[in-house]
Design a protein that fits this description.
66% of the residues lie in helices and 7% in strands. It has 366 residues and is mainly α. Helix 5 packs parallel to helix 7 (215-251) and helix 6 (177-210) crosses helix 9. Pfam families: PX.
Length: 366
């Protein structure tokens, strides 16, 4: 393993957690644990069984000649029926905590030989360095198992994007512009990442096929990629359709001319305030609209005009509130972008410091 690969591995995994587990029924009932890996820019989940942790521990011990710094939690027998006991849940929670401690001990160990081992990187689906020692391009490669983990994660990601878009539409219907904007931005970012990762998944399948794969398995996985691509297309249409609907809604609102006419009519109808005792009021002027009406018709016409004015004022107020909310949302988005840039700058500084320390250690060893 090259020095660049070692330094890169130390920098790419900044934190690691196991916060949940789930029971899967295929090919037979078993428990998988969700490993959440945080890198400098993005995070990704990895689903692993306890037996895969055992295999990893064996490979690391064999490759390095020494067991990892923390032991694996002991193995227990669990019940996968509907009559699961509280003791089973307690043991699962203890195992989850023990597996998290095991991984975090490897990541934070003073000796990097376990975390720099290729078996550990493949176990966590950690991306490889962008260039090799010879300067050639190197890309992250999938195994048969990690490819299925990535596909399952992308399906979950597509469901999350759809949920964000539905949430955005619901908030928009309630005139919560800032909340709708935040949900929409989140959905667009996830969709952009989803499209890129689906492309990488398709390329990974092609690489696996070249290394040997049955025709039936290749067809099954190709169908999985096709479904993900269809989901990306549908989600993209949902984003575009929602934007067009938003524009259509804005067109039914009063125009600037209508608002100006409304305000001018209100100003022209305003009478000077003062005492009117002893003053003769001018008789009301008949119009073509009021001339054929009786008293009941005049009252109805007056009520109709008042309701129309109330509606116009309500629409004008809605426009002003929407403009204010949009301004607040834009300000919030700018603040978030600034915070993200600050965090990225901090991460880059931290990575640079780690690389500098690594070089110093290598110089001392040399």
């Amino acid at each position: 393993m090259s020095t660049a690969d070692c330094s890169y591995t130390m920098a790419i995994i900044q934190s690691i957690h196991i916060r949940s587990h789930e029971i899967r029924t295929e090919p037979k009932p078993h428990t998988v644990y969700k490993i959440e890996v945080q890198g400098p820019v993005r995070s990704w989940p990895v689903w692993k069984r306890y037996s895969e942790f055992v295999d990893l521990d064996s490979e690391l011990t064999k490759a390095t000649g020494e067991a990892p710094p923390a032991p694996l939690p002991p193995k227990h027998a669990f019940s996968f029926s509907f009559r699961r006991t509280l003791n089973d849940e307690k043991l699962l929670e203890e195992r989850r905590s023990g597996l998290e401690t095991y991984l975090r001990a490897i990541v934070s160990a003073k000796d990097p030989k376990w975390r720099d081992n290729i078996s550990f990187r493949e176990f966590l689906n950690a991306p490889r360095a962008h260039t090799t020692a010879g300067g050639e391009s190197a890309t992250s490669q999938f195994t048969m198992s990690s490819w299925l983990d990535e596909q399952a994660d992308l399906m979950t990601m597509a469901r999350d994007i759809r949920a964000d878009l539905n949430k955005r539409d619901a908030l928009s219907d309630r005139n919560d512009v800032q909340g709708a904007h935040t949900a929409g931005v989140s959905a667009k970012r996830k969709l952009s990442a989803l499209v890129l990762r689906v492309g990488a998944l398709a390329k990974g399948l092609a690489d696996l096929a070249l290394n040997g794969m049955s025709q039936g398995e290749l067809q099954r996985r190709s169908d999985m990629v096709a479904r993900l691509q269809d989901d990306c297309e549908k989600l993209g249409k949902m984003v575009v359709a929602a934007r067009q609907t938003s524009r259509g809604t804005e067109r039914v609102l009063p125009s600037a001319t209508d608002r100006e006419k409304l305000l001018n009519e209100a100003a022209s109808s305003r009478k000077p305030f003062g005492r009117a005792f002893g003053q003769r009021q001018p008789p009301p002027q008949e119009t073509a609209e009021t001339r054929p009406l009786d008293e009941q018709g005049l009252l109805q016409l007056q009520n109709t005009q008042m309701e129309r004015q109330d509606e116009q004022l309500a629409q004008l107020s809605a426009i002003l509130r929407r403009q204010n909310q949009i301004g607040v949302a834009i300000g919030s988005e700018i603040s978030q972008q600034i915070e993200m840039l600050d965090q990225l700058s901090t991460d880059l500084d931290s990575t640079g410091a780690k690389l500098t320390n690594a070089r110093k250690q290598l110089n001392r060893l040399g």
